[in-house]
Specification:
This protein is an all-alpha fold. The protein has helices at 2-66, 74-89, 93-113, 118-121, 124-157, 163-169, 206-211, 214-228; strands at residues 200-201, 204-205. Helix 1 (2-66) runs antiparallel to helix 2 and helix 1 packs antiparallel against helix 5. The radius of gyration is 33 Å and the shape is rod-shaped.
Length: 229
Amino acid sequence: MVFEILSLGVCVGFVVLVLILLVLFYIVSLFNGLISLRNNIDKALANIDVLLKQRTDLIPNLVETVKGYMKYERATLENITRLRTSMMGATTLGEKAKASQAISAGLKSIFAVAENYPDLKASTNFLDLQKQLSAIENQIADRREFYNDSVLLYNTRIKSIPDMFVASILSMKEKEYFKAAEEDKQPVKVSMSDVPTAKTDGGINVSKAAKTKPWRKKITKTRKRKAKE
């Protein structure tokens, strides 16, 4: 009888021990899962920062390359330079997202206006910079999407049971998304008003002069002669 009681006690104790170990293992797995998500977010953000710096470093080269061709686009070039300065001075995630959004729009504006300058489009330096910046823009978009997806998963888990209890013990807070505020999102505006539509020769618009047909000049002279007679 005593042996049976002892055996039953050992079995119960073993079951309780197994349950405790299972609970501890589950808590540890929750903890490791949340830590892994947080590390992925930090890593994704670090990758974005690297790409943002690479793009920022290329902007002076782009401005230096195009300014000799785009003499009539001074405002556009000054704007992208100003945006670069804002990007370098950004400290919070929101500021970086806002500046990044503005720079992307500014680069699109420069590349769109460049279509009106055949000599610039034929420049090897410009084409190389355009290729590099376009590649970086695509990588930033990919990294930003991965970062925001990781933040969404992380924020969802720390609000869900039972993860929220572990998150509360570890003082885990919601992460911020990498995106500009809605009021900061501006559509890309490309102004072509300052782009010269025709070359000038001695202050005379060649395109307009070319439109004056020789036969119209002759008719005009004939009418003046008849009027004098």
